[in-house]
């Protein structure tokens, strides 16, 4: 099993498959208290001959020289910010050789924040999803050592890395094996291991209690929907945060069928639910003094003889009716149920996380999420994202778009102005279901799943984007 530890002895003498060191802007190996000047000079000579770059993440590989490691990976550290260090560690982690048994990272870690960033970059940059690979292609277990890191930094990094990797594992799992029922079982297993309370609403429970959004979206699948509540409530907590996650385990678009190419990544449409689940597990493992509840809104959106149709009217939990104009605008329907239920418990704040709209990617690209909601909460989330080195941007909820979701036959319709603003209209739709509760909405549609080449700590496939932001938000709330 991959492990993460610290070391406080000279790294030059540690037997390892690879040693990762930084390359500074002055054309030298970045200073590290556990890396001798002699070793730095020996490495620098080889790196300079190969025109090593100080640009964050730029990698130069050398044979082991002046150290016990068999390979030296020299990586640019830019200005050595936490973001630069995470990027450097992530890029370097993919240059340590095939199936290394042991890797030592000797990048500058002058603070616990820097050490956590380095550990995150290294382990998440080397992440591989191999559950469906044959034995010879499966990833090996690697012992990672972050030289000079404190025990506290290692403990925090272990929690955050495990949460991000857990999200990636869920999102990368094929929908044949990850569906509402199996997802709910995984939540129960993780909850039991972390000592948090888990409650599951089966399909009949959803029908009995009036969760028309989740039921409506899931009625086309033979694999019935679920609602899952995961609650962490430490003694003495003075803040309560509710997290609501979109959990469409596969999205065909329903009767409003997507083009086949657009379905290829739709196993990732449950990223929001995976993220809020692991945010609660991480909060429990870190023993944060804040109460956190995750609501997983789980359904599979399939076309069939029992699927909901365009022009159907469904009743959301709490009573509001919605005319379904497009069955591929399904995420907001399941989220509406979850938001009303979450707000029923009167939390101090509710955040929802969803791969909600293609318009998010059109507006902000593949790496930046949009944040909407109550202005103060929106700004608090964006501030937490900045502290956590995740790209998020505050977006408005223009009042003129509200009229676009008025329906002639129901309280609301699930599509708005066809001229544009789809991300904002979806946010305005969700706002209808939070009442007076302080609320933030994170649309992570494109950043959640990397369809391109690896970059920084992000490999191809699921990224775990927004986990760091949520965790920092919870830490800040715990200190409020």
UniProtKB/TrEMBL annotation:
GO biological process per UniProt: proteolysis
GO annotation, cellular component aspect: cytoplasm
EC number: 3.4.11.1, 3.4.11.10
Reaction catalysis annotation: Release of an N-terminal amino acid, Xaa-|-Yaa-, in which Xaa is preferably Leu, but may be other amino acids including Pro although not Arg or Lys, and Yaa may be Pro. Amino acid amides and methyl esters are also readily hydrolyzed, but rates on arylamides are exceedingly low; Release of an N-terminal amino acid, preferentially leucine, but not glutamic or aspartic acids
Cofactor: Mn(2+)
Chief site of localization: cytoplasm
Function: Presumably involved in the processing and regular turnover of intracellular proteins. Catalyzes the removal of unsubstituted N-terminal amino acids from various peptides.
NCBIfam families registered for this protein in UniProt: PRK00913.1-2
Stated name of the protein: Probable cytosol aminopeptidase
Organism: Demequina lignilytica
């Amino acid at each position: 099993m991959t492990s993460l530890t610290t070391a406080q002895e000279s790294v030059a003498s540690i037997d390892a498959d690879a040693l990762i060191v930084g390359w500074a802007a002055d054309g030298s190996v970045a200073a590290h208290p556990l890396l001798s000047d002699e070793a730095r000079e020996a490495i620098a000579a080889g790196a300079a001959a190969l025109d090593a770059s100080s640009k964050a993440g730029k990698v130069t590989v050398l044979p082991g020289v002046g150290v016990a490691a068999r390979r030296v990976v020299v990586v640019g550290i830019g200005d050595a910010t936490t973001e630069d260090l995470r990027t450097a560690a992530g890029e370097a982690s993919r240059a340590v050789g095939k199936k290394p048994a042991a890797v030592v990272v000797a990048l500058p870690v002058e603070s616990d924040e820097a050490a956590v960033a380095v550990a995150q970059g290294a382990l998440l940059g080397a992440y591989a999803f191999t559950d469906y690979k044959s034995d010879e292609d499966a990833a090996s277990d690697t012992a990672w050592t972050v030289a000079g890191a404190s025990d506290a930094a290692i403990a925090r990094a272990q929690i955050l890395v495990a949460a991000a990797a857990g999200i990636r594992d869920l999102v990368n799992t094929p929908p044949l094996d990850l569906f509402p029922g199996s997802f709910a079982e995984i939540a129960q297993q993780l909850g039991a291991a972390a000592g948090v309370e888990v409650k599951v609403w089966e399909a009949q429970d959803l029908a009995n209690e009036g969760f028309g959004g989740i039921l409506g979206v899931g009625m086309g699948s033979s694999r019935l929907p679920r609602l899952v509540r995961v609650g962490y409530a430490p003694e003495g907590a003075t803040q309560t945060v509710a997290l609501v996650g979109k959990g469409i385990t596969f999205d065909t678009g329903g009767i409003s069928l997507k083009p086949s190419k657009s379905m290829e990544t739709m196993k990732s449409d449950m990223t929001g639910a995976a993220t809020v689940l692991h945010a609660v597990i991480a909060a429990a493992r870190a023993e944060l003094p804040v109460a956190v509840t995750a609501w997983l809104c789980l359904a599979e959106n399939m076309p069939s003889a029992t699927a909901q149709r365009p022009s159907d009217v469904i009743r959301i939990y709490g009573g509001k009716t919605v005319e379904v104009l497009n069955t591929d605008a399904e995420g907001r329907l399941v989220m509406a149920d979850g938001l009303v239920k979450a707000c029923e418990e009167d939390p101090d704040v509710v955040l929802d996380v969803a791969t909600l709209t293609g318009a998010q990617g059109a507006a902000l690209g593949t790496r930046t999420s949009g944040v909407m909601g109550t202005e103060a909460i929106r700004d608090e989330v964006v501030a937490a994202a900045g502290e956590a080195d995740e790209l998020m941007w505050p977006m408005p909820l223009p009042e003129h778009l509200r009229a676009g979701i008025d329906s002639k036959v129901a309280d609301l319709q699930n599509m708005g102005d066809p001229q544009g603003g789809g991300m904002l209209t979806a946010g305005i739709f969700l706002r209808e279901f939070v009442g007076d509760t302080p609320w933030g909405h994170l649309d992570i549609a494109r950043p959640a799943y990397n369809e391109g080449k690896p970059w920084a700590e992000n490999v191809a496939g699921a990224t775990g984007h927004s986990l760091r932001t949520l965790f920092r938000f919870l830490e800040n709330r715990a200190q409020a």
